[in-house]
């Protein structure tokens, strides 16, 4: 089978199209023939070596497809089931062996491409808005990179809850998308100072929560636009890692809360994984969550997909098709 392998950490060129044997399932695993593999920013961190995996490894953390082989102890799925998963390396390939307890069924109303597009970013938007800081109607959220993969989904969920959404993006085109997803206000943070703008838009009161996936370039200013006892949810570092900072700043800026969550801890049990993925699939089925799948690449063009993602050229979801 064809797969995208990293033999040595590095830039997009570190991803090689290779021929590997089709995996055989261990007793607790099922083998899935992929219909689509999701591309996520976390793939960049693994490729660069910011997040470590034993070399060589097949990249990719998200996929959907049909079960073609089942291990003797894998009771959760059967041959022919349509399934999706996230959080395990190896999805940039034609086939992947996945522990069956991490596979979730795809409902009939959701396509395999939609499932591949929704697992990682959809469940992330869901836990951020429903659990990490459960947004309430009438509250105000600042959402950075609002036209990105997670961003567009998080804006929709926050809007559906009834929160006021202030969004940041880098271009007019992205601003249009963020507004279309339900953002009430959009700031072009590459042109305007989002700190001053957010303070102006909230009449100096500040926002209840900042959802920050950009990190290095936004984190510190984000703390200053929170209301007293507001919450900073730092969930990524697309612009780079946030440098160490003095916790005393949290008291000085208003007894603030900071958390750095990750999806794995919000889908740790099978029960929570199935409940959260079902909640996201239900939103899609009900038309309350629109997926934007505009950037679809053949598996062999994974390098181009990464260049586009890192170059801030993409909006919404990127998929690789084997
Ligand atoms: P995005 O589609 O959001 O792509 C990244 C976006 O970040 C860009 O489009 C760009 O939007 C913005 N950005 C700002 N500064 C930079 C920069 N210097 N270089 C590149 N991009 C920049 O990616 P994903 O939706 O896949 O992921 C978003 C973030 O969320 C990532 O940091 C990822 O690691 C994190 N994440 C965290 C999870 C968790 O559980 N903790 C789970 C899923 C994702 P613009 O041009 O508008 O500025």
The share of residues in extended strands comes to 25-35%
The CATH architecture assignment of the largest domain turns out to be Alpha-Beta Complex
Mean pLDDT: 98
CATH superfamily annotation of the largest domain: Medium-chain alcohol dehydrogenases, catalytic domain
Q: Give the count of helical stretches.
A: 9
Radius of gyration: 20 Å
- CATH topology term of the largest domain: Quinone Oxidoreductase, Chain A, domain 1
* CATH domain class of the largest domain: Alpha Beta
What portion of residues is helical? 25-40%
Helix and strand element order: EEEHEEEEEHEHEHEHEHEHEHEHE
What class would the helix/strand composition place it in? alpha/beta
Low-confidence stretches: none
The small molecules bound here are: NADPH dihydro-nicotinamide-adenine-dinucleotide phosphate
Question: What's the β-strand tally?
Answer: 16
Overall shape: globular
| Overall tally of structural domains | 2
Please summarize what this structure is.
The chain has 322 residues and is of the alpha/beta class.
Task: Describe the protein's architecture and organization.
With 322 residues, the protein is α/β, with parallel strands linked by helices. It has 2 domains: 2-119 and 291-321, Quinone Oxidoreductase, Chain A, domain 1 (Alpha-Beta Complex); 137-260, NAD(P)-binding Rossmann-like Domain (Rossmann fold), CATH 3.40.50. Helix content is 30%, strand content 27%. It contains 9 helices and 16 strands. The protein has helices spanning 41-48, 112-132, 149-161, 172-181, 194-201, 219-224, 248-252, 270-285, 302-310; strands spanning 2-6, 15-19, 29-39, 57-58, 62-70, 82-86, 95-99, 104-105, 140-143, 164-169, 185-188, 207-212, 226-234, 257-259, 293-298, 317-321. Strands 3, 5, 6, 7, 8, 15 and 16 form a 7-stranded mixed beta sheet that branches. The radius of gyration is 20 Å and the shape is globular. The relative contact order is 0.15. Bound molecules: NADPH dihydro-nicotinamide-adenine-dinucleotide phosphate (NDP).
């Amino acid at each position: 089978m064809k797969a995208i392998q990293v033999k040595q950490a590095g830039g997009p060129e570190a991803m090689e199209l290779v021929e590997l044997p089709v995996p055989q399932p261990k007793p607790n695993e099922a083998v899935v023939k992929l219909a689509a593999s999701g591309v996520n920013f976390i793939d960049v961190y693994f490729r660069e070596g910011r997040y470590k995996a034993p070399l060589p490894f097949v990249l990719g953390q998200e996929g959907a497809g049909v079960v073609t082989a089942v291990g003797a102890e894998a009771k959760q799925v059967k041959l022919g089931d349509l399934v999706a998963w996230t959080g395990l390396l190896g999805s940039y390939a034609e086939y992947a062996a996945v522990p069956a307890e991490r596979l979730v069924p795809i409902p009939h109303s959701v396509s395999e491409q939609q499932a591949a597009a929704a697992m990682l970013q959809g469940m992330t938007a869901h836990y951020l808005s429903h659990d990490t800081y459960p947004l309430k109607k009438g509250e105000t959220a600042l959402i950075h990179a609002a036209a990105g993969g997670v961003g567009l989904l998080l804006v929709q969920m926050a809007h559906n809850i009834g929160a006021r959404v202030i969004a940041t993006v880098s271009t007019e085109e992205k601003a249009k998308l963020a507004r279309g997803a339900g953002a009430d206000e959009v700031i072009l943070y590459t042109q305007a100072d989002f700190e001053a703008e957010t303070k102006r838009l909230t009449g100096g009161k500040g926002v209840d929560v900042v959802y920050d996936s950009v990190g290095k370039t936004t984190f510190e200013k984000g703390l200053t636009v929170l209301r007293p006892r507001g919450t900073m949810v730092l969930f990524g570092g697309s612009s780079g890692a946030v440098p160490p900072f003095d916790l005393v700043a949290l008291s000085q800026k208003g007894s603030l809360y900071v958390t750095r969550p990750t999806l794995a801890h919000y889908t740790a049990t099978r029960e929570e994984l199935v409940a959260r993925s079902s909640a996201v699939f239900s939103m899609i089925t009900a038309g309350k969550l629109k997926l934007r799948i505009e950037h679809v690449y053949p598996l062999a063009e994974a390098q181009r997909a990464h260049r586009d993602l890192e170059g801030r050229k993409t909006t919404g979801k990127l998929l690789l098709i084997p």
